[in-house]
TrEMBL record:
Organism name: Hydrogenovibrio marinus
Record key words, sorted: Kinase, Serine/threonine-protein kinase, Transferase
InterPro entries (alphabetical): Kinase-like_dom_sf, Mitotic_Regulator, Prot_kinase_dom, Sel1-like, TPR-like_helical_dom_sf
Protein name: Serine/threonine protein kinase
Ranges of residues in domain Protein kinase: 1-261
PROSITE patterns in the cross-refs: PROTEIN_KINASE_DOM (PS50011)
GO molecular function: ATP binding; protein serine/threonine kinase activity
Pfam families: Pkinase, Sel1
Record's keyword annotation contains Transferase: yes
UniProt key word Kinase: yes
Length: 449
């Protein structure tokens, strides 16, 4: 496929690359509509494996269109081979990060305008039960007279779920409680506080870098205090301290922040707080976080133990995570019971843990539970149930499940045979590195000759 995603889009006459990334690129394009030519901002999604998340984002964007003063209008979405193209009205090409880098930190007046705009958008988003989950300078689009909160691809429901447990990539704006799988209004407030510090100073609140070790970034959120607090204007300093409290219950809610814009008053405990100066990095951030009972860190430490062959230590950490209803630990504990190492094999317990994790939306657990029904492990064979579980997992981007769905369609297991669907699912899994699916496609092509 051509590197130009608009090559065969006849209504697109011009395109200019604004940002290029392995997962998402953005363009400014000229689109012909009837006899007119309009500017559009287009986000090109290069990873389309998670159908569920892409559809949910589309539905959310359509819902947010009714709030035209708060969000960039979403116009349409197109599938072009292995890309999705999201079309938006063009309101500006510069992010807050780019603006600050080019023209310097915001004035207090500009920061107030930024806060007002983002709060208004968050009210609408939180009102429908979602957290943005990715507030950072790169996620604010600077319009002519407005700061727009965009990048809804990370937005998730305010529920404790598998999705709220994931911490992938750059974590410079991640609230501490996210390490325990909690995503709430308070998590967005924390990230907004970190972003306000950047907007007013041009620096990260903990001086973190994008390419810094993820565990060091998370350690800073758990333990570090604000850097050079006196670089912020007095009232803004108090606000950011309030917004970035380590305990979510101590942070302001959106109503508190709107009131602060009126009177600039913060609680007494914030006014009396003495800022510490703990900015020392850790030589063992993962171990330190695990020792503080952070579920994400304990899970990752258990992964390390398991890879080293220390199954007893891994089992203990997974069991602790499962007790606290962490779905990734529940799934891995289920695998240990299924395999019979380091404890006695117990298919019933394995299925029970898989099911608990599946109920929280864990696609790995859904796949593993599907295998149990497919093979009749601890239960009778039920290919229809297996297919539904594999489908749940496949729609959420799980490669082995996508291959399984292709195989079920190719062989007519539990569902009518459908070679078109088989080729689609094999093709999707192969696109993202599944060698089994590549071989299955070759077999289908050979059989059709």
């Amino acid at each position: 496929m051509s590197s130009n995603p608009f090559e065969n889009q006849v209504d697109i006459t011009k395109s200019k690359l604004l940002q290029n990334d392995s997962l998402v690129s953005s363009y400014k394009v000229k689109q012909v509509i009837e006899d007119d030519s309009v500017s559009r901002w287009v986000r090109v999604l290069h990873d389309i494996s998670n159908h569920y998340a892409i559809k949910r984002e589309k539905d959310l964007l359509i819902y947010l269109n009714q709030f035209k003063d708060d969000f960039v209008r979403f116009d349409e979405i197109r599938k072009v081979q292995f890309n999705y193209l999201q079309f938006f009205d063009f309101v500006g090409k510069r992010t807050l990060q780019e603006k600050v880098k080019k023209t310097g930190p915001l004035s207090e007046k500009q920061a107030r305008h930024l806060l007002e705009n983002v709060l208004s958008g968050l009210e609408k988003l939180h009102g429908v039960g979602f957290v943005h989950n990715n507030i950072r300078p790169e996620s604010i689009l600077v319009g002519k007279d407005h700061y727009y909160l965009f990048s809804m691809d990370h937005a998730i429901p305010m529920l404790t779920s598998y999705e709220s447990e994931l911490l992938v990539g750059d974590q410079r704006y991640t609230a501490p409680e996210r390490m325990n799988g909690q995503a709430s209004e308070a998590s967005d407030v924390y990230a907004l506080g970190c972003m306000l510090y950047y907007a007013l100073s041009g620096k990260h609140i903990y001086r973190l870098k994008p390419n810094q070790d993820r565990y060091q970034q998370l350690y800073a959120h758990a333990f570090h205090s604000m850097s050079k607090e006196n670089s912020l204007p007095y009232f803004w300093r108090q606000l950011v301290i309030w917004m970035t409290q380590k305990q979510p219950e101590k942070r302001p809610n959106l109503a508190d922040l709107k009131q602060w814009l009126v009177d600039q008053v913060v609680p007494k405990f914030i006014r009396d707080e003495v800022i510490g100066h703990n900015r020392k990095s850790s030589e063992t951030p993962l171990e330190d976080l695990a020792n503080q009972h952070c579920l994400f860190a304990q899970f990752k430490k258990a992964n390390e133990y398991e890879a080293e062959g220390n199954l007893d230590s891994a089992f203990n950490l997974y069991e602790n995570g499962a007790f606290r209803e962490y779905s990734r630990a529940e799934n891995n504990l289920g695998l240990m019971y299924e395999k019979g190492a380091p404890i006695k094999q117990d298919y019933f317990k394995a299925m029970n843990y898989y099911h608990m994790a599946y109920q929280k939306g864990n696609p790995y657990a859904a796949y593993n539970l599907g295998r149990m029904f497919e093979k009749g492990l601890g239960t009778s064979v039920d290919l229809k149930k297996a297919f539904k579980l594999f489908q749940f997992s496949a729609l959420r981007g799980h490669r082995p499940a996508q291959h399984k769905i292709g195989s079920f369609y190719a062989e007519g297991q539990g569902i009518p045979k459908n070679l078109i669907q088989a080729r689609f699912w094999f093709g999707l899994a192969a696109r993202y590195g599944c060698l089994e699916s590549e071989n299955s496609i070759k077999k289908l092509l050979t059989a059709s000759l």
